[in-house]
Amino acid sequence: MKIARTVAEVRQAADCCKVEKARLGLVPTMGAFHDGHVSLFRAARAECDKVVVSLFVNPAQFAPHEDLARYPRDETRDAELAEDEGVDILFAPPADELYPTGFHTWVDPEGTGAEGVRRPDHFRGVATVCVKLFNIVQPDVAYFGQKDAQQAAIVRQLIRDLNLELELRVVLTVRDPDGLALSSRNTYLSADERLRALTLPRALRAGREAYADGADPVAAARAAFNGLDPDYVEVLDLGNAKLLAAAARVGETRLIDNVVLEGELT
Ligand code: AMP
Question: Where do the domains of the chain lie?
Answer without folding.
Answer: 2-171, 184-259
